[in-house]
Every structure is written in structure tokens, then in C-alpha cells.
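call fold(seq) -> C-alpha cells
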Amino acid sequence: MSMTAVLLVGAGGHARACIDVIETEGRFKIAGLVGRSEEVGSRILGYPVLGSDADLRRLQAEHAYALIAVGQIKTPDPRMRLFELVRQSGYELPVFVSPHAHVSQHATLGVGTIVMHGAVVNAGAVVGRNCIINSQSLVEHDAAIGDHCHIATAAAINSGVRIGSATFIGSNSTVRQLIHIGARCVIGMGQRVLADCPDGTQLPPHERHA
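ret:
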């Protein structure tokens, strides 16, 4: 029986990581990607870039499923815009979980979320829509992650933490248990978050000098 095809919306570095997760998971085959107009006709890890954003409605006639494969560091806006455009175009957005990750059967993942290799989402955790739970990151028990968040590589979100929508938590950052982080925050890599952060908080990467 042939696998269902999924279209990846985005053709950059994060798309490559998404391809690897989808290939490893083995539930879907990758139909191709949607990228910038100048990328149309190129190939990413062997898969064709079939069109640009303007072609999403046309492509939906052939492909019912899509995943937002654009990364998120400085701003969540491109991923949020594409998520709404894809939904309005009639696509379904599956959840993807690497077979090398662990997601508790007692956790909840929103549509369009991807859990990358080595990540852990523990019991009672709730992760919103269109999130990236990146490689080797931890979302501990009873934590709640809002929509459109990126928990970057090796970040640790401890038990009972609440994170608002469209927030970025940088690589190797640690958030103490029961902390509340607001919406549209950027927590730079290597930070230790020990107190609540209001909406829009910007914490630069933690720097260590030899």
C-alpha cells in the first residue's frame, strides 16, 4: 500500500531536518517542497521544489497534507503566516514525531507540530500547534507550550512551566520548574531562566569567556 504524500512548506535548513524525521518515521512520503520563487525547480535532498507560496492553493488539489518546514529564531511571523495560509488553502497538518524521540502517551501535541530526534515530551505535557520541539530538547511533565513556539536543540523546559505563544527558547537554555514565560519572547541560547518573563521579553544569548 502506498504512503500518503506530504508537502513541505519551506526549503531551507530546517526543511532538511524535517525531511530526515519524516523519512525515518516512515508514515508519509514527501511529495516535494514549497520555497521561494527562485528555488522552484531545484531539489532539496533529492526532492523537488514544486512551487512558491502563490502555488499553495493549486498544489492542494494534488496533496492534502502539509507541514510548515520554515525555521524560527528571530521571529515567529513567517511560520505563523504560512500556517494560516496553509490552513486557509485546505491542507491538513499532521503531527510528526521522530522514532528516536519519546512522547508520552499522556502528552498532547497540537496539529502541525514536529518532534525531532532525541527529544522528550513527558507525561501531562501539552504542546500547541505548529511548534518545533527540536533535537535533544526536553519538555518535562505538566509543562504547557503555546502555539507557534520553537524549543531549540537541547533546551530543558522543566515541570509545570508555562510558555506563551510564538516564543523561542534557545539551544541549551534551562527553564526552572513552574516558571511562566509570556508570548512572543526570545530566550537566547544558554540562558538559565529562574524568574517569570512577561510578554515580549528578549534575553540575549548567555556568553561565557575563557
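The longest strand covers residues 28-34.
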